[in-house]
Amino acid sequence: MLDRVVMVAFFAVPVGVLSLGHILNGHLNTFIAAGVAMSGAMLPHRLLRLFVLYAALWLLWLMAAYVGSASDPFAVVRAAAEVERAKLACVWIMFAAVIVSAAYRTRYPLETILTAVRVTVIVQLVFAVSQMLGTDLLLSVMALIVPTEYGGISPVMPTGTLGNQDFFAGYIAMATVFFLKGRWRLVLPVIAWVLIRTHVTTAAFAVVAGVGAYYIPGLSWDRVAVVVMLALAAACFYVFFIDGRAFWTDSARFSAWRDVLTRVVSEPKALVFGFGPCARSRLLHPLHNDWLAVLLKYGLIGLSLLSAYAWQFYRGDRQLFGAFVAGCVHALGNHPMHLAPAAFLMCLVIGLGERQKRWQTT
Predict the structure, then answer these.
(1) Domain ranges of the chain
(2) Whole-prediction pTM value?
(3) What is the pLDDT of residues 143-153, one digit of tens each?
C-alpha cells in the first residue's frame, strides 16, 4: 500500500491546486494530505491504515469543496475555516501515526520502555503530591525560567505538569497497569491517593477496566489483585457517592453528546460518512468523548474501523492490553487522544502491542 500511495502523491503534489489563493498554497494543501496518507500507509495494521487514509480523503474532499465555493463569498469564508481545522486535525493524526510506527519499529526491550514510562509517571506523582500539600514544585521550578499560571485550576489540585486534573488523572489511569508487577506495586497507594483527590470519575472507571483487563485474561488472581481491586472499588465509591461530584451530574457534557447524536442521526449521509475532520460540537469543544467525536467527524465508517481494531487488539501482553483498555474507557468520558501526553502514551501502547504480536508470530 505504501508504494502505491507514494506514487500517487508524487504525481499529485506538483499538480495540486486545491486552494483559491496562491498556487503554492494548493501545493501545500496537497502536500499535507499526501503526508497524512503516507504516514497512514506505514502503520502496522490494516484497520489503522484504512482509518488514516479515510481521514486523508476527507481532507482532500474539503479542499476540493473550498475551491468549488469560489462563486459565493460567504461559502468561501466558511470553507476556508473548515479546511484549516481539518488540516490541523489531520496533521495531529499524522503525528500519531508516526509515533505508532516508531514504537512498532523500535528494538528496545519492552520492559526498558515501560520502565521509562513508570519513571515519567513517578515524576508526575511527585509534582502532584507537592501540589496537594500546597508547595508546588512545578511552579517553583518554572518560576526560575518563566512566569507560570494555572489557567483557573487550583494549585492544591493534583495536576502534575499537565495543568488540569482531568488530563492528569487520565494519563495516570492509563499507566497504572504498569505498576502491577514486582516492587513497582509500592507506588500503587500513591497512585490511588492522587486519583481520589482528582475527583475524576472517568479515570476511576479507566483504572478499574485496565486492572481488570490485566488480571482477567490470564486468570491469575492473587492476593495483590484482590487488594488492588478492592481499593479501586472503594475509590470509586468515594468519588461517586460520598464526594458528590459524580460524572453523570455534568449536564453540559451530556447535553453536548445528545446534540451530536441528534445531528448525526438526522442526516443519513453524515451518519455513514461523518461531517469531516473539521466538525465540532455546537455546545462543547472539545467534546469530552473521543469515540463520539470519531462518529461526528468520520461517521460509522471511521467508528467501525477503530472499534474493530480495539476489539482485536493484541492480548498477549497483559500490561499493554490493560493500558489500552484503560485508554479506550477513559476516552468515553474525556478526550485523551486530543491531549499530547495521553495521545503519545496511547500511540506508544498501540505500536508496542503490534510489535509484540509480530515478534510472537515470528
Answers:
(1) 2-105, 110-249+313-361, 251-305
(2) 0.86
(3) 666 655 554 44
